[in-house]
Amino acid sequence: MRQERSVRVSSDRRAQLVAAAALLAGAAYLGWRWGWTLQWHTLWLGLPLLVAETWALASAALFAFSAWSLTAREAGPAPPGRRVAVLIPTYNEPADILRPTILGALGLRYRPAPEVWVLDDGGREWVAEMCRELGVRYLSRPAPREHAKAGNLNYALTRVEADFLVIVDADHVAMPHFLERTLGYMADPEVAFVQSPQAFFNRSFQHSRGVGDPLLNEQSLFYDVICRGKDRDNACFWCGSSALVRREALLAVGGVATETVVEDTHTAMKLHQAGWKSVYHPEVLAVGLAPEEVSAFLTQRGRWASGCYQVLRRDNPLFARGLGLRQRLHYFSSVSHYLEGPQRLVGLLVPPLVLLTGTLPLSAPAGLYVALFLPQLVLVPLATRGLARGRFRFAESERYTLVRVIAYTKAAAALVRGGRVTFKVTPKGAATGSLWLTALKWQVALAAFALCAAAYQAVAQAFGLPGRLSVFAFAVTVFWSVMNAGLLGAAVWWAREVRHRRVAHRFPVRVQAACGPEGAGVPVVPATVRDLNPFGLSMRVAEAPVAGARVRIVMLLDSGPLEVTGTVARAETLDGGVADIGVRLDELPREKQDVILRWCFAQPFGPDSPIRGAGAPVEAPEPVPAERPSERPLLSF
Prior knowledge:
The chain is an alpha/beta fold. Helices cover about 45% and strands about 15% of the residues. It is built from 18 helices and 18 strands. Helix 2 crosses helix 7, helix 12 crosses helix 14 and helix 12 crosses helix 17. The longest helix is centred in the C-terminal third of the chain and has 26 residues. The chain starts with 6 loop residues before the first strand and ends in a 35-residue tail after the last helix.
C-alpha cells in the first residue's frame, strides 16, 4: 500500500517470526485439545478451561495483528489563521487540578490565540469565578445533565464555533507546542482527529517501579505500540483527551456518542464508519494525572470495561457497517480486551476445583500434553515481548492482570444481568486512607482458596481421601494452584506499597536559590531546589536550619526571582556538611502559584528529561554538590 510522505511504517522481522511460530504452536495445541481431550462427564470444568485457553490465543493473535508493524508520523507546518478552541470538560475536580489545565490551555502557541472554554458539569460558582479571573469562557449546561462527559461536550458543540477543538480532560495540561505539532495534519480535509499519547506526570499506581523512565506505565503498550499499529490501517482511537478534533466531523456523526460510557472510542468508530480519517501523532503533547491509588485505578478500568462491553453488545465492530476488515479487527481487538477478566478468572478457579473434587478437565497422556503445551507457553510471551518493542515486562503485566481481573469480570457480569451502566468519574489525587485491602479482597480470597485446595489434596494423597489425583496430576495442579496463589499475593502486596501522602504532586526540578532565616535580611545561603509545587519544596543547602525554623527562599526562575516563605518540616545532614531539607510553604498568592505551576509543567519530568515543553528554560548547573539523600517517608504536604 502506498504511504503518505509523512508516514513511515517499521517492523521487526525477528519478532514477527517468533510471533508466527507462537501462533502455530498455539493452534496445534488447541486443535489437539478440542479434538481429543474433552470428556462428557468432566465437561463442566473442561469446557470453560478450553474456552479460556482458546480466547487467550485469540487475544495473542489480535495483539500480533495490531503490533505487526508501526507508523511514525510527522505533521506539516501548522496553517495560520484557523479558529481553534480548547474544551476542558470538568465535573468535580478541585482547583489545584483544574487551574494548571487552564493555564496550559492559555499557553498554547498559535495565532489567533485559541479560545479556552471550561465546561463545568458541576455548576460550581468558584469555577466561574476562576474563569473570570483567568479570562477564559465558562459554560455550564442546565439540568438534567445527561450522558456525563459526552453530553457536556455535545452541549458545547452547539455554542462553540471554532473549526478545530483541542479536547483535554480537566487533569491534563497541554504543552505550548501542541498545535504546532498537530494542526498541520488537518490540511487533509478528511482527517477527523489527531490523537497523541496520554502521559502522566505523577508516579502513580500504574507506573512501573524500579525503572527510571517516567513515561513507562501500564498504558505504555497501548499508546506506544498498539495505537501506532492501529494508525497503520486508519483505525486509531480518539482517547478522550490530548486530541485535536475537527468540529465539522463531530457534527457530521451527530456529535459525541452517548450510547456507551466509552464515548471516545465509540465516537472514533462512528467517524471511521462515516469515512473520516484519523491520525496518531506519537509525541507526548500533554501530561495528565494518573489514578494514585489502586481503588481509583480499578474505578477507571471498571468503567472502561463496562463501556467496551456495551460496544460489543450494541455496535459490535465485527459487524459494523462502513468499516474495512482491518478496521474491524483493530476495534474488536481493543473492545474485547476486557474479556481478559473472565478468562483469567477461569484460570484461577480451575486448579483449586480440580484439587478439591479430583475432576480432571482434560484426558491425555502426560508426555503428549507436555510436548504440545510447553512450546506455546514459552513462545507466546517471547512473541509478545518482541512485538512490544520494550513496552512489555512479564512480571508487571501479570500483576496488573491479576489486579484488574475482578473489575473486568464484574463489568461483564453486570452487562449479562442487564444492569444500567453509569459513568463513574475517576477519583483524582491521593486518597485520604488506604483502600487497597477493600479493593483487592477477592484477590486475597482467591489466593486463600487456592492454598486451602492444595492443602486438602496433599492430605488426600497421604490418607486416600475422596478426590485423590494421580501423582502427575497432583504435581502439575498443585504447582499451578500454588503459583497462582503466590502471584495473587505478590500483586496484592505490590498494590499495598503504593501509598501517596502528599496532597499535590511534587515536580522534580533543579533551580538555583538562596535561603536564610525569615526576617534576617536578603537570603545569602546558596541552595538548589530539587522538587517543588505551590505548597512545598525540598532543597539542598550549605547550612542546615533546624526543623520548625522559619525560612525565606528566593528561587531564580526564568520569569525572574520568586520569593517565598515557609517552615522547615524536615532537615537531614548529608556527607560534606550539606543539608537536605523539606519546607512547607506558606499559602501563596495566586500569581505566585501560577508562576510555579507554569515552571513545573514546562518540564514535568525534570530538567534532564527529553520530554519538555518547547522553549522550556534550562537552569544553571547545580551549585551545591552532595550525595543523594537516603530514602525517607513522604511528607504530608
